[in-house]
Structure formats: structure tokens, C-alpha cells
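>> received
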Amino acid sequence: MGLFSFSRKPKASELGPEAFDFAENWSIEVMPRTAAKIEDFRTLLPKGTRVYIAHIAGTPIEDMVATAKRLNEQGFPVMPHFPARCIADAATLEDWIKRYREEADVRQALLLGGGSSTPEGELHSSIEMIETGLFDRHGFTHLHIAGHPEGNGDIDKDASTTNVDAALLWKQDFSSRTDADMAIATQFAFEAEVVTDWAERIRDMGVTLPIHVGIAGPAKLQTLIKYAVSCGVGPSLKVLQKRALDVTRLLLPYEPTEVVAGLADYKAKHPDSLIEQLHVFPLGGIQPAAEWMARHATADSKVAAG
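>> returned
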């Protein structure tokens, strides 16, 4: 069974245990401080789940590497963030890469410009990190890049997609010159159509990289709105705003059921889509997100996880 198996768009309440093969087809994001609250990830995540480690400005590299080592030792492939604007120069970048490789056996990286508007040093973008050649030189097997289905106001201040599109095409070209497997991990969105329209548009541009769609895990509505605004989520934010106006749903926790069902319906109708899997942002906590995903896993996933 592939990631999506619906032949029609289900109602939100119908998203059942046969919906997805989650054992190999979803990933999750943690931070060192949130990961520290989980005693053993093997009790929560299916075997082989890729775990991204978000690098928030100010987080010591030692904490990042220690978290990566722990997760790796528990059997999970680890993909730490490399935020360019938080890295002083190429020498610092190489130091980080060496620490990850030598201390935690990390071979995967998510390459980002980073959330900071002011670079700490010479590096300003993921392209500049790629151009150093350090990831290939040190044997990284997977390099993921950021995708922005709703644009990025920090990169395109005129509300266009000119710069993000140009950067994506540059990275698409680079994918033919590296031995590393590449994919696009997107910002989370709350409406499937926003993502699917974008996936079609970039494919028409010539992009062939697989897309790992970001979704927000279960969380309080107020928490999600706060994160969505700070992360620059665009038009799909209206889904949350509409929900906030419904007093019958205001106090209920958000779950990504509707957006996931919409993606499932689209993938069933467009099996050749670039959309390949889901990436979970556990904004309401790692455990609630993992438990939600587990409830919708196939029987095969549960066997693999056990």
C-alpha cells in the first residue's frame, strides 16, 4: 500500500486506520528541549521514522549533536537543520558537519536560510552552503531543502514568488550534480489545495524533486495561530481563523484530519504527483502528534513499530 489509498475524498470523521502506510511515509520534527522530555522515542515512533532536529537561533551545537546521537542510537535516521544565517562562515559549517558525522553518525541534513533576518556572518542562504561542497565532501546521503507553498515574505518582499522559484530551480539543477538524495520539505499549511496547486505549479516549472508536505500536529487553536503567524503561513491561515469564529469548535484541539484527507484524495487521483509523504510539526507536543499518526497507521505500520 502506498502513502495514500483513498479513491474519494473522505469526511473528516472517516480518516481511518487504512488511510496511510505511515511506517515509512512520515517524518517528525523535534527540538533538543522538546526531545529531552521523551524518555525513549521507540515507545512513540514507528521504526525507521526520520526525525528532523530543528536548530533554533541560540541553541548550542553541542545540544544539537547530543540529541542527534541519542536518536540515532535509538534507531532513527536523523536530519538536523542547518540554518545558514545562524552559521558564521564555511569553517563553522564544516565544524558542525564534522561533529554530526563523527559524534552522532549523521548523514542527512535539511538546508535552510534560517529564521533570523540578520545573518550572523558570511552565510546568507542554503545555496551558499551547498556551494561550499562540504556536504558532498563529508558523505551526506540525503539533502532536503525548504518548500514554501504559500510563498516566503522574507525572500520575496513584493509578495511574488520570483526569488523562491529561482532558488528552487537552482537546487533542482544541483540535484543532478550530487550523489545525495534530495527532497523538498514544506512549511506547514492548513489547506490541501494550497499545497497541491503549488506542487503542480513547480512541476510545470521543471521541478522533479519529491515533496514532503508539512502538516501541523494536534494542538490548541490559539497555539497554532501563534505559530502560523510567526512562521509566515499565508492564505491557508483562514482555515484556522474560520474555526476560531465557530464557538462550537473553538475549545476543541485542532487535528490535521481534513488537510490530510484532502491530500489523500488528490494523491489518489494524481498518483504521479510530486507529493510523496508527510512531515509533522508537533506544535502541540511530540506525544500527541505521534499518537495521532499512530491511530491512522496501517496494520503493517503497527507491526513495524512493534
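>> The domain at 12-305 is CATH 3.20.20.220 (TIM Barrel).
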